[in-house]
Amino acid sequence: MATDKAARQKPVREKPVREKPVREKTQHERADTETRPDLLGRIAAPLAAINRAPLTSYHVVMVVTALLTVIGLGMVLSSSNVLAFSGGGTPFDIFLRQALFVLIGWVGFVTALRVRIELVRAAAFPLLLVAIGLLVAVLIPGVGSEINGSKGWIDLGLFSIQPAEIAKFAFILWACSVVAKRMRTGYWLDLLFPAVVGYLVVAVLVVVAPDLGMATAVTIAFLCVLWFSGYPTRHFVWVIAVGVVVFGVLAVAFAYRFERIRTYLDTFRGDFSNPQGAAYQSYQGMLSLADGGLFGVGLGQSSAKWFYLPEATNDFIFAIIGEELGWFGAAVVVSLYLTLGWVGMRVALRSVDPFRRLLAGTVTATIVIQAFINIGYVVGLLPVTGLQLPLISNGGTSAVVTLTSLGLLANCARHEPEAISAILSSPSRRRRSWLALPDPRPYTPERPVPASATPGRSSAGTRRFGDPVTRPQPPRTAGPAPRDRSAGARRTAQPAPVPRPPRGAPRPPAYETMPIPAEAARDRRRGATAMTGRTARPVRGREAERRQPRRPAPDAGSRQSPGAGRPSPIHRGRER
């Protein structure tokens, strides 16, 4: 019964599931989907907009300088409190002295940002003479004080100054000033002299101190000046080769320097068989970096500063950064120096003034290369040279000089052509206060250096671009121009001037050229004459065209052929 009842039940009809019709995208939606940027495009679009902004270089220099200064003060406080307390004072003594120098350095930064570039160029040579005088005073017994085997400081009672840092800064200003006047020549002797004379004087006085690390910094500055001025590559390679040989001899001549080279080779191979010997400092620096890991042990929690790592506040402060802030903190510091290098090269490429271009490139490259040399010998990739980490290591003179140099870099950034236009056209320029920066001035080309008798020894003596248009030309005389053998200057071959024909004589054509036999024969075959010229069609072609019957003119009221001209609106109206 149950089976029959189940068989008699009507089957349940399942409702068909209606699929929702897929609405096609409109043309605007498709265009929006196609032009919508992906994730990488969304990230790159703001960066591209920032890069196109006219004052990007100036703002980036200010931000990077402020960040490096804050990080440097924090790390000096963290790494020097134990050393300062052990000396009988408070844990903040070294930090307060460094903060005072940083404050003086920011005063120099603002001064360099506001000063006119003409005043900087005028003060470059007197500043170099003062720096050379300080280098000589360091060598006088009783004036210079010796620290770590180098007699390179002058004790002024409350603090000490390092004349080598001042000499490096003064040499950069003077070398950029003298080389910028000779950049138009492209001659390697013009770019080398007299900049090499100033370099040799400063470098020899620094090496006599002895301070091979600062001599390396001065050499880097000199090479940067030559490179950014367009010095020929093959001569540049020779200069580097000679410098490497000289520094190799100086490194081998002293026992402690040779020991540093041998320690570097052992450290590079990972050989720490004698960790208590000459490799003690490098070994402790690597242990500090290894203890930090990814995130560090915490700010102020370093164990290497408890007299395990020598020079923890100066040369090896990057090891304390790696220990307390970890890999990420060290990566932030490296990224800031890379950003400084990028913006410095950006300023150098956009500058129109040759002096600003040289100054921006040299200051940036010197600071960034010095920073990576310091980081390189802390991680064991380079031998220990004693160069400080700019704006982070404990050093008063270095902080003042570096901040003043970055002030000049910010000054150059404000004088980019687009930055000048943006500043001068800004609406807020009318509401200026006495604290506002002065208006930037557009670049005005200066007069080149005087010409010399030897070709290529000055911008006017090379005759590379020809005589200026405004220069009065000497009157022409009949006959070839006499050849000047005494001056030694290069002169191109000039055609003899054509004498003026007498009055009444037939005048030749205004533009007369010497005929070429092959072209004259080809012109005769084509049927060219004195009247038709070289563009004449062949005679046979003209005769064949003349013999062809002429086509009748089309009727004005009839439909014209497709190749004919378009009928007027009146005719089209008649057809309709």
Task: Supply Rg.
Answer: 39 Å
- How would you describe the shape? elongated
State the share of residues found in helices, binned by percent: 55-70%
Sheet with most strands: strand arrangement: 1-2-3
Number of helices: 20
The helix/strand series, from N terminus to C terminus, equals HHHHHHEEEHHHHHHHHHHHHHH
Descriptive account of the structure:
The chain has 576 residues and is mainly alpha-helical. Helix content is 56%, strand content 2%. It contains 20 helices and three strands. The chain has helices at 2-8, 27-35, 39-52, 56-86, 93-114, 117-138, 163-180, 188-192, 195-208, 212-228, 233-253, 255-269, 280-292, 317-350, 354-378, 396-414, 417-424, 517-526, 539-547, 569-575; strands at residues 144-147, 150-155, 160-161. It has a three-stranded antiparallel β-sheet. The longest helix is centred in the middle third of the chain and has 34 residues, at 317-350. The chain is elongated and about 115 Å long. It starts with a helix and ends with a helix. Mean pLDDT is 77; it is low at 451-468, 484-490, 509-515, 559-565 and 568-576.
List the helices and strands and how they pair.
Layout: H1 2-8, H2 27-35, H3 39-52, H4 56-86, H5 93-114, H6 117-138, E1 144-147, E2 150-155, E3 160-161, H7 163-180, H8 188-192, H9 195-208, H10 212-228, H11 233-253, H12 255-269, H13 280-292, H14 317-350, H15 354-378, H16 396-414, H17 417-424, H18 517-526, H19 539-547, H20 569-575
Antiparallel strand pairs: 1-2, 2-3
Helix pairs in contact: 4-5, 4-14, 4-16, 5-16, 6-7, 7-9, 7-10, 7-15, 7-16, 9-10, 10-11, 10-15, 11-12, 13-14, 14-15, 15-16
